[in-house]
Amino acid sequence: MPDVPAPPRGTALLMRSEREMYDLILNTAREDGRIRAVILNGSRANPHAPRDIFQDYDIVYGVTEVAPFRHDPAWIDRFGERMILQLPDEMRTPPAGDDEPFCYLMQFTDGNRIDLTLCSLARLDDFTQDSLTVVLLDKDGSIAPVAPPDERGYLPAPPTAKAYADCCNEFWWVATYVAKGLWREEIVYAKAMLEQIVRVQLVQMLTWYIGVKTEFLQNPGKAGKYFERCLEPALWERLRQTYADGDYERTWDALLTMGDLFRITALRVGEQLGFDYPQGDDARVGAHLRHVRSLPRDAQEIY
Known about the structure:
Layout: H1 18-31, E1 35-41, E2 57-63, H2 67-70, E3 82-86, H3 88-91, E4 102-108, E5 113-120, H4 125-128, E6 134-138, H5 161-183, H6 187-213, H7 227-230, H8 233-241, H9 248-273, H10 279-294
Parallel strand pairs: 2-5
Antiparallel strand pairs: 1-2, 1-6, 3-4, 4-5
Helix pairs in contact: 5-6, 5-9, 5-10, 6-9, 8-9, 9-10
């Protein structure tokens, strides 16, 4: 096992409390005349989100000018000792301009995390439009009244007939790539096709399925993080079975289970919304997958 570096000296052992973090965030703003407003977005603004120790502080500072904060990164040292920092707006090609919002993503050694966006006052409305918004500070009284935070901006929308058809087509089309990779014993390729494309379509269909079940009034969460509480236990168990390791046979099982789960949920979505499910594609591709699984490694022809 490679050596793991020891934590840096001075690493905080006690996690600062929520009250301490809000005091730090707000006192920083109060003491700096360039910061005119503070907005909270994200899960901490969501009255329905589970509370836990990993919740970030998604903070927006409305400032007179963004550039001075961007070009003096040492100013963020006041927020605490950092484990790691990311500057996503510097990583863009091209990087964000000086008048655009600029974000500091800060993971601290005590476990807390602040995702801090600096935004010019002229663009602050872009952030108050988020349905999960709480105004923590408005020095000038310039922010228009904001509705109480709720999940309305995070609810799934019904698909169009085209979006539904495209999702079905992409799922079954790329499933054949997974089968090819598994037969060739190219597990990295097969996993890439399975996870980066096939699963994406499955997650999309599951999101629509939860939507039609709840009249599109339940939030399935980012990347499906609330699927367990939204799906029936039997469907949730099927979904869990689609997460395989690097074993070829178990990956085959996962692929076929994904097909079963996709079919069950896509049929329900189609019935509810009046869309035709491509039964023929499903049947033909499903038969092909099972055939390729049984195909000898030294086969000279597919059929």
